[in-house]
Specification:
There is one protein chain. The chain has 413 residues and is of the alpha+beta class. Helices cover 32% and strands 23% of the residues. The protein has 14 helices and 19 strands. It has helices at 13-24, 40-44, 59-64, 74-80, 82-91, 110-124, 177-184, 245-251, 254-258, 276-290, 296-301, 306-316, 329-340, 396-408, and strands at 6-9, 29-32, 53-54, 96-99, 103-106, 128-130, 135-141, 144-150, 154-155, 159-162, 193-195, 199-201, 213-223, 226-237, 241-243, 264-269, 342-349, 357-359, 380-382. Helix 1 (13-24) runs parallel beside helix 6 (110-124) and helix 1 (13-24) runs parallel beside helix 14 (396-408). The longest helix is centred in the first third of the chain and has 15 residues, at 110-124. The chain binds flavin-adenine dinucleotide. Residues 9-15, 32-35, 38, 40-42, 44-46, 50-51, 134-135, 163-165, 168-169, 173-174, 177, 356-357, 384-385, 395-398, 401 line the site of flavin-adenine dinucleotide (FAD). Flavin-adenine dinucleotide (FAD) binds at residues 9-15, 32-35, 38, 40-42, 44-46, 50-51, 134-135, 163-165, 168-169, 173-174, 177, 356-357, 384-385, 395-398, 401.
């Protein structure tokens, strides 16, 4: 038997969970981490508060959050799912709280607390963590990994786990190296896109309202003139387009929707609970009431936030200082049409640098879902974001790491 049983590449949440699990089974484990410290991305997760899983009880609903690839997770979740994850951290002294959208956070201490607990368990299990140790390549022979090559050494183990993360937020160390290692072992990588990322628009006017946040709006996606999706919630204008929770959520589907389409647009309904007729009647009533007393901008201010009001008047071509009694029926109509349907042409996504996760990764057809073992290379395993799995915000992405990390660390070679 080699001196090392399990060698893990990457000290993020997936790699550390794999290390905790493997060492608890008596394995001699080492983790190779290229950064000077482990868990850099984990530390910024949930703005440092770490939304580490979700309390959704219904497994089918939980799995549906991951789209078509979610079914790959049934086996892993049945062994170590969200419930077991919460119990794991609670049993290791982390109090948890549930917030909006069933998001689960540590009650105190945030991401640092989660990382500290993982490191404590690694220490108890005798896991050796080599920091500042980037892996350069895998050497593969006869469908088995023979060794990993670092700048200084070649290291051999019974079993290897690739837990190098994706390509998003590369400053945290996730620079896509794992995809190259997987390819060295014969794996295919599905097309990679940034996901949970702001969206660029062809129009440049969003920058006029940059930073403006709109709540309780409906954002529809229009592909070649037909509505194909629609979300209710919160969004924000940026210098290059739009962002905010519902935009980030929709961003994961945009590359797929763009394929073969002639046009892809957002349609923003700022007043989804009011019809054209109700809005028109309300504005006409207000005009009558404030005739001779107010400017249209003051009236519009009662309908939309101040920083957005300037933008919508600009789009409607109504001078903000125009007295209400001079507003024509055509101007009212144009204003209401805009409240109900502001169009923006989707012009792509921001880069991986700003993306919360990576869409795409190691092809799931080539990985055994019950063990995370490669189907192509006997002693190779995968865990975390390097796999072709991603979910919406709400704790769903870290759950991939806990489950696949735990499962990949569970099998002795
Ligand atoms: C700003 C932000 C906020 C987020 N908030 C949340 C949240 O609240 N909830 C949630 O569920 N998800 C959140 N996520 C997503 C979540 O952080 C990731 O899904 C998760 O960190 C992926 O874990 P991982 O272990 O697979 O990879 P990573 O966390 O990326 O870790 C991979 C590790 O491998 C190391 N590595 C890479 N290449 C090599 C190499 N060649 N040699 C050695 N080491 C290497 C890297 O340095 C890194 O430490 C957030 C992401 C971001 C960017």
């Amino acid at each position: 038997m080699a001196e090392i049983n399990t060698l893990i590449i990457g000290g993020g949440p997936a790699g550390l969970m794999a290390a905790v699990r493997a060492s608890s089974l008596g394995q001699r484990v080492i983790v190779l981490e290229k950064n000077a410290s482990v868990g850099e991305k984990l530390l910024i997760s949930g703005r440092g508060r770490c939304n580490f899983t979700n309390a959704e009880q219904d497994m089918n609903t939980f799995i549906s959050k991951y789209g078509d690839n979610g079914k790959f997770l049934y086996s892993a979740f049945s062994k170590f799912g969200p419930r077991e994850t919460i119990l794991f951290f609670v049993n290791h002294g982390v109090n948890v709280i549930e917030e909006r959208g069933k998001r689960i956070f540590p009650a105190e201490g945030g991401s640092q607390k989660i990382l500290d607990k993982l490191l404590l368990e690694c220490k108890k299990g005798g896991v050796r963590i080599f920091r500042n140790t980037p892996v350069k390549a895998l050497r593969v022979r006869n469908s088995r990994v023979e060794c990993v090559i670092t700048e200084r050494d070649e290291l051999r183990a019974d079993k290897y786990i690739i837990a190098t993360g994706g390509k998003s937020y590369p400053d945290t160390g996730s620079t896509g190296d794992g995809y190259i290692f997987a390819q060295q072992a014969g794996h295919s990588i599905t097309k990679l896109f940034p996901a949970l990322v702001p969206v660029r628009t062809r129009e440049t006017w969003p920058k006029l309202a940059s930073g403006c946040n709109l709540r309780n709006i409906r954002l529809k996606v229009i592909r070649d003139g037909k509505e194909i999706d629609s979300r209710f919630g919160e969004m924000e204008f940026t210098n290059f387009g739009v962002s905010g929770p519902i935009v980030m959520e929709l961003s994961s589907y945009i590359p797929k929707w763009q394929e073969g389409s002639e046009s892809l647009e957002f349609s923003l309904d700022v007043k989804p609970s009011l019809t054209h007729e109700i809005l028109t009647a309300r504005i006409k009533r207000d005009i009558e009431k404030y005739s001779g007393k107010k400017r249209f901008a003051t009236l519009a201010r009662g309908l939309v936030p101040k920083d957005f009001m300037r933008l919508i008047l600009e789009l409607a071509d109504i001078p903000s200082d125009k007295p209400v009694e001079y507003i024509s029926d055509e101007e009212i109509c144009e204003f209401v049409n805009l409240l109900k349907d502001i169009r923006m042409n989707i012009n792509g996504l921001w880069s991986f640098k700003n993306a919360v996760v990576t869409n795409g990764g190691v092809n799931l057809k080539e990985v055994d879902p019950s063990t995370m073992r490669s189907k192509l290379c006997g002693n190779l395993y995968f865990a975390g974001e390097v796999l072709d799995l991603n979910g919406p915000s709400g704790g769903f992405n870290l759950q991939i790491c806990w489950s696949t990390g735990y499962i990949s660390g569970s099998v002795n070679e």
